[in-house]
Design a protein that fits this description.
It is built from two helices and seven strands; from the N terminus they run ααβββββββ. The protein is α+β, with helices and mostly antiparallel strands. It has a four-stranded antiparallel beta sheet, with no helix packed on it. Residues 39-45 have low confidence and may be disordered.
């Protein structure tokens, strides 16, 4: 008797069913937003492009993923402690077709990264290879740690 009650309760309360209903609701909301605002090309993650930033005593190193973007469509600016990456990702051609599933977006992007130190803009180097942008950002001389020699009195 107890087993039948547990089995009945399990069928009536399925936590995965709740998740599935939430997923469907979010999909419907997303479609409605696209219909109203036409903004189906805006990324919904923490930022685009996704980046990794490494810092040491000499400066910072940034790696940004930009698949499908041409190097000439990317602009990098450095002011003080800020690195800004801007550009445009072209729309993929799907002639005489409509999207069945769209997870990759297109359009203009801008990402600003605040560093904990000022950068020497004259020494910044950027390279682009196979969809990966790498930027070497040397620390400004006045921001570099200085070793102080301690003299005996």
């Amino acid at each position: 008797m107890l087993w039948n009650s547990i089995e009945t309760l399990t069928r009536e309360f399925d936590p995965w069913k709740e998740f599935e209903e939430m997923r469907k609701t979010l999909q419907n909301l997303e479609r409605e937003m696209e219909r109203i605002f036409g903004t189906d090309d805006i990324p919904v993650s923490g930022g685009y492009p996704p980046v990794n930033v490494w810092i040491n005593s000499e400066g910072a190193y940034v790696a940004a993923e930009l698949p499908g973007v041409k190097p000439e469509d990317v602009e990098i600016t450095v002011v003080g402690k800020s690195l800004k990456i801007t550009g445009k990702r072209p729309e993929e051609e799907g002639k005489d077709a409509r999207y069945h599933l769209k997870e990759r977006w297109h359009g203009e992007f801008a990402r600003t990264i605040e560093l904990p130190f000022h950068v020497d803009p004259d020494k910044v180097e950027a390279k682009f290879s196979r969809g990966l942008l790498t930027v070497n950002l040397p620390r400004a001389e006045e921001e570099k740690p200085r070793k102080i020699t301690v003299e005996a009195a």
